[in-house]
Every structure is written in structure tokens, then in C-alpha cells.
Amino acid sequence: MYKPLLAALLCSAFVCFASAQLRGPPGAVCTRQGSRLVTFLIENRRRREPSSGIWDYLRMWDAFGIKKDRNPRSFVTGYAIEYFTIYECCVGWNRIDDTCQADCYHPCEHGLCVDTNFCECDEGWEGEQCEHDVDECWYEIDECDHENGDCTNTEGSYNCTCDEGLHLINGTTCHEIPDTDECARGISGCEQNCHNTHGSYFCSCDAGYTLAADRHACTDIDECATNDGGCEHSCTNVPGGRCSGIIGPPGKSVPNPWPNHRLAGETACRDNDTYPYGEEAGEVPRIWNFSTCNEEALPQEGFRFFGRRHHQIHICDNGIVSFDRINRPRNLNLNAVGFYTHAVLAPFLARSNAELLDNLPEADRTKIYYSLYERGDGKVATDEVLQRARDDGRSTPRYFSQTYEPVWALVVTWTRVPPDCSIYGGVCPRDHDQLPVNDFQLAISTDGTLSYATFVYPAKKLEWVSTGNWKFALQPQESTTVPESAVVGCSRWMRQQTVEDPTQLLGYGALPPVSSCPCSAEQAFHDPTYTVDRSQFNQDRFCGSSRRRVHTRESAGSEKLILSRTCCYSAAYWWRQWAGRRWRDRISGGSLRTGHAGGHLIINDTSADEVAYQSCCVGASGLRGGWYCQRFQTLRPLSAPSAPGCKDYPVDPGWTRLRGDPHFTTIDGISYTFNGLGEYVIVDVDNGLYQVQGRTAFASGSSHATIISAVVINERGKLPIQTNVVGNSSLDLCINGSMADTSVFESNEEMEVGDNAVILKPSNDSLLVVFFSGVTVKVSAKKGMLAVEFSAPPEFRGKVRGLLGRWDGDSTNDFEAFNGTVFSADSTERELYAFGNSWQVTVEDGPKKSLFFYKDGEDVNTFISVDYQPKYTDELVFSDPELETKAREICGNDTECLFDVSQTGDIEVAVITVEGKEEFASQTAARGRFPPTVSGPDEVYATVNDTVTIRINASDPNNGTLVFALGEGAPDTADLAVEGDLATLTWQVTSDAPFNLRVDVFGSDNTTAQYWPAVYMCSCLHGGNCDASTDPDPASAGGETKFVQRSCTCAPGYTGDRCEEDIDACLLNFDPCFPGVGCEDLPAPAGDGTDGFRCGDCPGGYTGDGFNCQDLDECGTPEGDVCTHTCENYPGTFICSCDQGFELTEDKVSCQDIDECALQLTNCSQQCENTAGSSNCACLDGFTLAANGMDCEPDNPCSAGNNPGCEFGWCITNSLGTAQCVCRSGYVLASDNRTCEGRWK
């Protein structure tokens, strides 16, 4: 392995810092990192071997590595990625030349568009579009010398002038002595910047340069010369600045010099495996209390952790993250029971202590960063973080999810985390600024259904414990059951919403107001502005939709939005009532629900919003204190938030009908007949905002009576809608003069016309037009005649005129002619004929201009006869007595009915007239049939074992008798006492099981209302109290049952939803006692902290209270005195050691001498003598011990001439004077008396 060092560039990936080329307000200019391949030379050297890390640390930190000799230098070509910054306009901003601008409808002439329709003007300009020059001279904001000169305004600026004889200096000052502008003339000699002064000048340098001694030249500042420029890895000086780069780790030989890093900010280098954090992510370190874990609420999806969904996260400084409430774990032991019972992620399991670095300079302290990232949150790192989280999720080992798209991610980064020193009695064996430190990261993400976690360990930032990167799926691959699945659907819908507060949308006020729902399903069914599906009546809750709607946009160019409302009811049923001549269908039940169940605003898609309601307010109703339903109500305001939810439903709407041989009933209730021939304004609303015109023709069999044959309906500026009678009982439909395709009505669908009305076909012989304002027109065909029903909401009262009269509640002025003349309410029909003709339409432009579509050759005059003479109902004459008899049998004394038969000679007309009147009367009665009004508290607070008393008041609109009854599912311990219009509900609360506390109130005419409060149940045990701060609003409480189990604040020592469990402080604190020490939970009222448990005795070799145990230095106690020679202390124990030359005996405490001679551990050449703890060498007679204390030298060695060639020994001259070979220790002389052989031979 080789260590790459940069020889030429000294950086493998570098960025030269420069200012952005784009300008714009904060948040307008975004940056991203670009890259390209570069080459350079690398010097190779052999790397150093690493130490064993944590084990050296634990053994008094005596070494971190062994230095090896380096190989000779050599160079190779390396390749790396060069990173650079790309500047571009952020999403939502437009690039115009060199600026990023927002959308301004009127362009900023001399400035920058910094927000929607808001200009920030350049200096010297003002106005909404920066179109006006600022007259600096007039405002006296110029810098001219007014004592010796004057100011002249120019576009966007001004010029200064001087009095005669004076000279302008620097454009502002007047002086007698003229100035030579050395800068302007280019004679200053300044290398970079020149500044003129009166009579002189001075030079300055750009950033990154300093002025030389000659005060003209500029010298580059070598930023890298001091502290390596502050760069984390390497620094290369460049003219005017520095390039911060990245070098490889010591001894690491790679093709590119440590290419897997990036530059963060100007100096920091980050491993590419890490998610963005700190400065590059716009983060600052979190403020931390190192004794606790920080609690944060998670986004709306919460976080799925296998079989549970969690909505809070607890982040601890020591690398532990929990989704359950925990106390900061002291001992990171996976065998602790807490790790099995809590939803915990542990990206770091070594024991650490961040507080150790608190006294160091800020840059050297432990820092913890964390941020949540959601699409569109405006954070600079969001897109990159979510992309990486997506890739990590899709590539998680042993889990397949190739379509995973996270909706949010959380990144937690711990930096410079040191090990814990408590094992050494709290005193670290090394100075705190020399402690090894680690960086590591946790990234979690979810799409609501799937959740993933990634542990990131940057290799160059791990100094005392290291590991690889890991990815985890937090649900089994085969799992199909999603916990709290309603949260997923609700959250997905919420993220799709673009309108935060619909009540601020343009046109919202044109919708039916809150609390204006029909009071019953029967009213809604007969109200033409609502649509109710009768097939849903048997459901516990069904909804009608208002046909009144508003088309709007959130802003110019944004998506079109269609707003409407729903009103929802309890189950209803049909029944039949005898109505004089025939049976009539009636609807009972169907009480208006209130709160979240009573309906809400709809934006665009009714079905999607209803599905969202079911998820947010039913499925997720009890989660996060009702937050999901409350959030739904913000996005879709309720229609009936509280009882009575229909208090603003109109009691007397403008609703009337004209029929047959035109018989009119004004909206204020006066009936008359107008037998005009031609085309007329039937009704005019708000001076032509809406208009209904009718065309009359001769009634069949009569030349003196007419019928309505065609109707045109129009809203000013919109498409006119015309229908003509075809045959006996059919209608055609023309929109803007063209025949419409009516096939849509075959599937009972509605036809939307433009953005202002819908058309539907209630029956085969009728069409209903509903304008989004609430104005409705229904046209029906019978016997070749058209009948017209008209209704308008109360806001148009006082604004309606025409043949249907002035609608203002005053019947005396109903017959107001077009010119304002008022005919008496007692006028004869002959007199009223002039009133009717005043509303005849015209060809000319004006308020009565015809809206009809004409065939070729037709116009208004086509349908007028100057010879026509009408007949009047008050001048009724039958020419056929037999016909009169039959007519009176059917019509009775109904003059209009008799008149129609007398003019047409057709008895069937009588049947149609009577049936039409009865049907309209039935509908009118149904719409005006109000249920009882019921009042009582919106919320009821109950506590187990208490008694609740509720008083309910009710009144019947017809002063009829009321009947009170407990609804289905009420508890057996509830009792209802009734006295007239007052009912008293007494409830003995014996259980906290959910139920419906509903009282049904039955009024006259078989109408029904309900009293259904939200029940807030408190069932806290062991002295716990209910927390009112978490109670949801009654309008959003309790889902389908309106029953809320209140949160408990438990007394010390207890936990659980109802405070039913004694806190196990040992479990909650993850076995907090010293490793190996038993933990005993203390009974309540002991708390969940250190007062809630008791630790056993410290293990042998340690001292302390069992919670904190420090190593016992046995060598300083009598226990260590057993060692014969030396005692060495180690964490939790000690060992005896011996002096050199001695060894431990079997008892491991005593020392005995090592016989070096017997063990042949010496290098003595002849003899060895053992001594205590050592040995000495000795020589044979005739030899002398050499100076090295090991070799023996002969006293009388052989000469060269008489040496027989002794091997492995010496040649000496013996006492006989002859040569003799003597062998070294361990050898013997062979038979040839010359060679020394080893004894083993």
C-alpha cells in the first residue's frame, strides 16, 4: 500500500472561491456542484502501519502507530475530480440577464423583481415599477457643495456644478485650485485600484493582495502560509485567494488522491458517503443538554418502525436515537432489556462523553447537527438529501423496493465525539485536546409505508472506533400490514394540497356560508342547489353536495380551483304520506351531523376529499391528539362546525313557479295570469346579472290564451342556455345558439356550462339549470306547455324584478313595471296586462334585449301579433257546460285550472295543472319543514366513577310535542328524564370503553334532530391527571364515535395510557448501572430517573456506588502487596510482574530466578555461571575473558605456521609446545582432532 502525496498541485480536488455571477434577493440564487477530471503528479511512499486503536487507548494510550522507513521517491500520474460551483436561479425565480427575478406582472423598469409584483428599485429610481426618477437635488440627498455650487438632476442620478472660477473635485467638491485626476489620466502607477484626492491620489489592492512598500504595487497574500489556510486537508495558494483541496490519507495509495471527498464551505472536506450537514446544509449546531435526549416531533407521516408508527423522535448525544420516550442511556449494551422493548436505532455503541471537550475552543468541541428535510421546504440541501435517501432505500441489502420515494428524511450528525473516561475515575489518561474523536451520521427516511435507516461512518473522521457504512430496512420484506395505515393516506393527501388557507382564496365568500346546510336530508333532497344520492340513505353517514361553487385560482397562472361544500346527515329512510288526492314520498331521519362529520369544503375532487376525510378524521382521529382531523379542517373548513349546523339555512328562500297558460305567482306570493303573446323578461336579477326570458305561443285550441313554448336563461357575460318544447313533453337544449349533446344525461351526470352553471335532467320531461351563485331555473314540459320554477338565495332579496314581481318581502310593490311604475296588488288582470307588456323584450341593445337564438328570418317580431286579444281568468266563460262540469270535478274552484280547460278544451290540462301545483306545494313544504332545534353543551367531560349530568333543551318549529330517546349504543348506566322541552341525561360513569352518547329528538311532522356531544373521558389511575392541553377541539374530536380518551399526566413512578403501570426505571434507563452491576427497580412513587432504581455493588476491582464505578488501583492497597517484585494496575484488576531475570511462579505473585545457563539463554563461548536475576560467562584455564564479557581468548594461541586448521574453536599451544584444538561451548572435538562437532551429532 502507498501513500499518495501531491507533488505538483498539492490538491486532488480543489475549488477556487469566486463571487456568484448572478444577483438577486436572498433565496433567489442557488448553487450546485459541478465537476471535471484533472491530472497531476503523485509522489509514492510506503504507508505507516496503524496501531490497534482502542486497545492502545485503554492501555494508557501508549502508542498510536509505528513509524516505518520510507521507500525511495518516485512519481506517477494521478487523476481526480475537480469540483466547482455553478450558480443558477432557484425554483420559482426567472433568470433575466444577470439577475434572478420573481414574477412581476408589470416589469421593473429600473430595478429587480424580488417578490410577486414587488420591485426593489436601483439607486436613483422609485415607484411601483421603478419608473420614476428620484430628484436627489430636490430631496437634498445629493453630495454636492451647495455653498460653492449647485446640483443638477439627471435620470437615475445627478451632477454637481461649481460657481464661476471654482473647479469640481471628485465630482462633488468645489475648489479654487484645479485638480489633476491622476487616476482618470492613467498616470498614477497604481497596479490595481486608484483613488483620486484633491492634489493627489492613493492606491489600494483587491481582496487577497496587500500593498507593497512602494505603495503602488500589489503583492499576493499567501493565505496557505498560516495554519495551512485553515483548510482541513490541503491548501494551494492562488493569486488573490486560495484553493482548498483534498489530499489522500497517510500511506493510502489510490488511483486518485482520495477522490471520495467533497469540499464543504471554504475549508472543510467531507467524505462523499456523508449526507450534507453543517454549513453546506445551512445548519448550525444544536444547543444540547448532555444529560437528556432532545425530543422532536416528526412530520405528518410519523415513522414506521416495524409494527408501530411513531410521531416523536428522541436524539441523544451519545449516538442513540429512540422513537419511544427514553432517558439517556449510559451503558450502550445491546443485551440491555431496554434495547428489546423500545424502538431504538444505535448508530454508535461505544461509550462516549461529549462534555469532555466543553472547555476547548469552539471549533474543537463536540457538535451535533440534525435537520428534517421535506420536498419544497426551501432548504438548500433538501433535494440532495431526499435523492440520497431514495437511493439508499432502493439499495438496502435484502430488501427490494425499486419505486421507493421518501417524503421526508432526517439527518443527524455527531462530530468530534470523544470516548468516556469515567472508567478511570473521571480523569482521562490523556489531555482532553489529545483525545481521539469520531464523526458519524444517521439518516432515516420514509414514504409513510416503508422506512429506512443508514449509518454513515466517514473513514477519515474515526479515530477510536471504526466500522463500515450500513443500511437497514425497518420493516420485513413480506409485511403487508401497515400500522396506522390511515395516516399514510391522510398525509399523502395533505402533501398534495397547495392551498394552505382556502378561506383567503378569491371568491370563497361567494360560497354558502358556514352553518347554512339544509337542516335535514329531506330539505337537502328537495333543494335544487344540492345533490343527494338517495341510494346512500341507509348509510350511518351520507353527504349531499352543494351545486353552488366558485371557480378561482390561488395566483395568476396557477391551477384552476373549483370550490364547493358538502353537508352530511345521519341515516335516512323513505316513507309514504297521504296528501289529500295521492300518496307522497317523504324522508325521515337524516339529521344534519355537526363537527367534522357534518361536511366540509371541497376543492376540485369530491371523492378524493371524502377519502381524505375518512383517513384524517375517522381512521386517524385518535392520533397525535386529533392533529390529523384538525389539519384537515384547516385545509377543508367545516360546513357545520357546531350545533345547530343549519342556523343560516334560509327559512324563506325566493322560490316560485309559473305554469300552463301563463299563471304566475310572484316570489312574494301574489298569483295572477298574464296571457301575453311574444317574448318577455320573466325575471331579472341584479339589473341583468341573471335573466330568464320566456317565449309564448297560442295554447292548443285557443286564439286568446297562450302558453310558454321556449325559455332562455343567462348570466351576464356567459353562455346563454335555451330550451324549447318539442312535441308533447320533450325538450331540446341549445347553448350559445348551438344544439347541445344531451347524452351525458343518460348516465345521470351533470353538464357543466362554462364556469358558472350546471345543467341536469331530473326527469325525462324537465331540465334544471343551477348557477353557481345559487340561482336556479327548472323547466318542465307537459302537453306541449312549459312550466318554470325559479329560486334565488337570500342575498338577492331586493334585487329581483320582472314578471315574477319585485322580491323584497313586500307584496304591495310586486307589480313593478320596467319603467318603475307600480301597479296595485288589487289590479285586475286586464289592468296588469300593461304591466306584463312592459317587460317585453326588444331587438335593440339594452336591459331587455332578447337573449333568444333565432332561425334565419326570425326575430323578436316574429312571435308578436298586433291583432291578438287575450282572455282573462277573472272573465272566465265556458262555452261547453259538460266540459265545465268535468273541469270543476278536477279543478274544484281553482280559477287558473278552470281557465286553462276553458281555453284549450282539453280536460287533461286540468289534471296536469292540479298535479303540478300539488307537486310543487309538496316540494315547497318539504324544503320548509324544519326539524326541532336542540341545544346542549358541545363537549362533556367524564371521569370514571363519577356521575355526569347533562341538560338538553329542544323546541319544535310548529310547537308540537317532542319525544327524546337515547341513541343506539348509549351505556346502560345512562338515564334520560324528560319534562316537556327539557331532557336531563344522568350517566354513572363505570367504564371508559368508547360509545356514542347520542340523544334523538323527534318533532312534529315526523322530523328528527340529534344531540351528540363530544365525550372527553378521563380514566387516569394512581393519582394521575388528565392533560387538557392535548384535548382536540369538539369539532374534530373522536372520529365516528365523538369519544376521546384523554391523555394522562401520571404521578411520579407511574406510566401507561392510564397511568396503570409502575415505571421500570431500570428498563427505561437501559440498565443504567455500571456494566456487570445488577439494577433493582424501586416501587412508585420512585421516579424514572436515578431516584427510581438501586444499583448493586461494583464488580471486583472497582469502587463506587454501583451506578458509577471507578477502577480500583489494587497496587496502592495491601491487595497489591502480595507481588514479590512489581504490581501493575489494569481496569478492574491487577497483575504481578517480575524484575528482569526473574519469572512468575505458579502462584502468579512470587518471582523465581531464571537459570539462563541451563536454558542456554546466554552467548557464553565456554562456561556459564548462573547468578540471581542474571548470569556470568567464564573461561577455561589458558583462556582470558574478552571485554565483551562473553568471548574467551587463548592466552597462548597457535601461530599461523603450526595451526592444524581447527574449526569452530581455538588453536592453542599447550604446555608441550604443540598445537591443540579446543572447541567452543556446545561442541566436541572430532576424531581428526581438528574439527569441532555439535553435541547433537
From TrEMBL:
Signal peptide: 1-20
Residues covered by the VWFD domain: 654-847
InterPro entries according to UniProt: AMOP_dom (IPR005533), C8-3_MUC4 (IPR056619), cEGF (IPR026823), EGF (IPR000742), EGF-like_Ca-bd_dom (IPR001881), EGF-type_Asp/Asn_hydroxyl_site (IPR000152), EGF_Ca-bd_CS (IPR018097), Epithelial_Barrier/Signaling (IPR051495)
Protein name: MUC4 protein
Domain EGF-like: 96-131, 133-175, 1014-1060
S-S bonds: C121-C130, C1050-C1059
Keywords noted in UniProt: Disulfide bond, EGF-like domain, Membrane, Repeat, Signal, Transmembrane, Transmembrane helix
Domain named AMOP: residues: 482-636
Main localization of the protein described in the UniProt heading: membrane
GO biological process: cell-matrix adhesion
SMART domains: EGF (SM00181), EGF_CA (SM00179), VWD (SM00216)
Listed CDD domains: EGF_CA (cd00054)
One annotated Gene Ontology cellular component of this protein: membrane
GO molecular function: calcium ion binding
PROSITE patterns: AMOP, ASX_HYDROXYL, EGF_1, EGF_2, EGF_3, EGF_CA, VWFD
Pfam families named among the record's database cross-references: C8-3_MUC4, cEGF, EGF_CA, NIDO, VWD
Gene name tied to this protein: MUC4
Keyword Repeat: yes
Subcellular location: Membrane
